[in-house]
């Protein structure tokens, strides 16, 4: 029994890790590990950024006019964004080296995808440009890394020098590098000594050796370039050209991406199912109606229980007024999230859904006289950028227990529903503030094609409260991705 178990484990490990690693190394299958140039070589640096040695390295590269490619660890980039920003601004390329420095052999395909996704998201937030290149820690690939559907070029190396060990010393290290100094070479070095098996101060020896190598390269007429430059015109690139041309986006990154839903762990998928099951019970208990079979919204008629809110007409929504309370259909939004290959695609689907659903809601309101008597449509959400485009005014929630509990609830929902919700909470916690969104029934019906003369108007005394509207301005420079930092509308409690 134990012998059979051992054999099965050996087979699984071989097909998942050993064999893919072997064929990638021996045959260069789906990896770039050497260029074809006679005058250019690539310097690549792993494991950074380091707060001490990476700035010194950038100074050295700038001194000799050399360009390099940095394969950064996501966690380190998160800690030192200014250094990553400097890399980008000085013309170096930035690649992915996982979020933490862990071998891909020890992780499932889904775990590796999460590592890559988190790191590319951090790099994009810092530089505004999505990375194209990926180097797995220790160059260890697994079967899923070599998938033809991968959006990244896997970059290995043609020479490494043991520079992570301080005892090698600068002289021996320089001698090793000079023996490999030629066109087409991809040199692997390390600008951080904090990873397992490395010496903390080893990069100091590497920097001293590298300066001597850069001086020698200039004398030989060799140029240190980025991986992208070395890859251009190479045999590897000619094989990838057709696919890249078909799938490359405007920002230079592949638009072909794994669905965001594949980033969810089994535990998180279980939480999502549990949460959505509870929502079905909630909708049944409170008799929520839906805007359509595939609609984004649920709604119900109820009395407003909050403090007075000013509408876009200058009128006021008072306590006791009839409102149509809106909820996002989180099941539908989760389905959109799971099937989307980028946040941009998700945002577009969301906007298209809202534009499709609001006219349907207007028709349903006209067919139900009691809905037409409502003073406003109302909800609360952490989606603070974008509702104005649909006619909703955004208002601050009054300080109090409701605001505190609503913020807690929506953050919990974001962490569960969104594939990178935990990361967004960590990065943008101070900006995720629930706000009320409200639009008068008259304005909503007029905007979505219904004759507003059918709407009763008994609000003269509301208008006396004030006619000047001070709405929360939409940020014209905000990205469409920022408009989707949460996926729920929570309403005032009964």
From TrEMBL:
Keywords: Membrane, Transmembrane, Transmembrane helix. The keyword Membrane applies. The keyword Transmembrane helix applies. This is Polysaccharide deacetylase family protein. It holds the Pfam family YkoP. Residues 455-465 have a biased composition (Basic and acidic residues). Residues 39-225 form the NodB homology domain. Coiled coil: none annotated. InterPro entries: Glyco_hydro/deAcase_b/a-brl (IPR011330), NODB_dom (IPR002509), Polysacc_deacetylase_ArnD (IPR050248), YkoP-like_dom (IPR054467). Residues 468-480 have a biased composition (Polar residues). It comes from Paenibacillus wenxiniae. Residues 455-494 are annotated as: Disordered. The chain crosses the membrane at residues 6-27. PANTHER family: 4-DEOXY-4-FORMAMIDO-L-ARABINOSE-PHOSPHOUNDECAPRENOL DEFORMYLASE ARND-RELATED, GLYCOSYL TRANSFERASE-RELATED.
